[in-house]
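Final report, closing paragraph on structural work. Over the funding period we assembled a curated collection of sequence-structure pairs, and we close with a single example.
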Amino acid sequence: MNGQVLLITGGARRVGAEIARTLHAAGASVLIHYRASEAAAVALAGEFNRCRPHSAAIHGANLADAQAPQGLVAAALEEFGRLDILINNASSFYPTPVGKITIPMWDDLMASNLRAPLFLAQAAAPGLAKQHGLIINMVDIHGLRPLKGYPVYSAAKAGLVMLTRSLARELAPEIRVNGIAPGPVLWPDSGVDDALKREIVGKTALKRPGGPQDIARTALFLAQDAPYITGQIIAVDGGRSI
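Its predicted structure, as stored:
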């Protein structure tokens, strides 16, 4: 992947940071988007630049802002001169039980999980087309099977599944578009009850949780070894979806 450029949203922490680290190690330069995690973004970019000078940069933005997608793509092109891979990883996640759903909740969850990936893809498409590039959307197994108590999040991720497939048709043959649907690979920062963790893991075929590295390796596979795959949603969930 030497010479290729990755733009990843929500790339400063958690799964996003692991994806960025893995693709950077494979040779890519990386623009790390963050919203609130500036210190983590600075630290990660510093780690990358110490390893390979001028191979990482950061850009802060609230993806709910209408101008953010265009500005983020412009920053990647200005910093590195090209764009090969867009990974829409940033996501809001919290419960919205029926009866307590508000318009701001709807707008926030739809903005980060569905609207931003669309407009980022649209803004990035001209640059990606020049490189016969790739878009990876981080979906969720709950875009395929709803999560109780999270109807808005589940609907947004379901929309992202269809958007992934639609963009694969719209942007072909120059750009490939795929999705990754993680299962239990990293628990929310807010924490999960141990009994619920056991229940979730027990529903996987492999009877064990995964890790961020499983998602990162799948992203690397799509970026480096899968030139004939597009329009697909790859479930990395230990078999939970079956």
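The mean pLDDT is 95. The first strand starts at residue 5 and ends at 8. We thank the funder for supporting this effort.
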